Amino acid sequence: MGKQVNSRSQMQDSTAPAAAPPAPGPVDKAMEVLSALSETGAPHRLADLARHTGLAKPTVHRLLRTLAAQGFAEPAEQGSYRAGPRLLGLAARVLADDAALDLARPALAELRTRTGLFASYAVRDDRTLVHLEVLAPAQGLGLDLRPGSREPLTAGGAGLALLAALPPDEAERLLAGTDSSHADEATHADEAPHIHEAVSAALAETARRGYGFDSADIWRDRRTLAAAVRDSAGLPVGTLALTGLAFTLDETAAELYGPMVRAAAGAVSAGLAARTGTRLGVVGSGGEAR
């Protein structure tokens, strides 16, 4: 057997710091601007887009001019910009072909009618939930929830429902990389294990009953109850969620509506399993679709 030869890279100190990630290129910057344009509150001022993306104003302005020339952005009043017709058309075509969303729409309409609450369908974008479809009740309830609204995966019942439906190792990875400061910015490091234990207990309870429900929090004005929609392999592709003011969606209401949402998500999952074709992928932290 030949003598083993170590390469220079193998001989380097394994404790050496990892190489810094590559600087964002033009395509990365353009995607950041497109993402910022799609945020709620359009049209967006140049200064707001620069602050949201972390890019210099001249860079954002140059990208906006290029995007506008291609129809992906559109100038608005007082130098602001909004998403352009070409971007809106692409989004509409993609959503129209999504089987899960197509099946979820009638279920959402029925849930809204029967409960008088916001009914929405949300999907995961790595550690964030994005509401693709939102049906508001007639009275509105004074909540700002609309298509495109985003929230941290660990922020409420919808995230709990999705996390509980994921394989345990994937759920653990997402929890391990999540900043818990949204719950309490004054949280000390020695409290982190207790927070993780509380989340793990909530996930176990969500898995047991088949739906997730926000814990009571006097600082929040809303609560969400949700159940996961699964594909033919049993993996979650999204969640059906009910959202309402905290005093209207309490524990008593959750006991009534929870089985209703669970059954609706089960019906959508069954319909999805019976269909063929692809679905919208989940974008992970590395940019790959799963």
TrEMBL record:
**Domain IclR-ED intervals:** 86-274
Question: Where in the numbering of this chain does the HTH iclR-type domain appear?
Answer: 24-85
- Mind telling me which Gene3D superfamilies this protein's record contains? 3.30.450.40, Winged helix-like DNA-binding domain superfamily/Winged helix DNA-binding domain (1.10.10.10)
Alphabetized PROSITE patterns for the sequence = HTH_ICLR (PS51077), ICLR_ED (PS51078)
Q: Which UniProt keywords apply?
A: DNA-binding, Transcription, Transcription regulation
The UniProt annotation puts the region (Disordered) at: 1-26
**Spans of biased composition, class Polar residues?**
1-15
Cited PANTHER family: HELIX-TURN-HELIX TRANSCRIPTIONAL REGULATOR, ICLR FAMILY (PTHR30136), HTH-TYPE TRANSCRIPTIONAL REPRESSOR ALLR (PTHR30136:SF24)
Would you tell me the protein name for this molecule? IclR family transcriptional regulator
This chain's source organism reads Streptomyces aureus
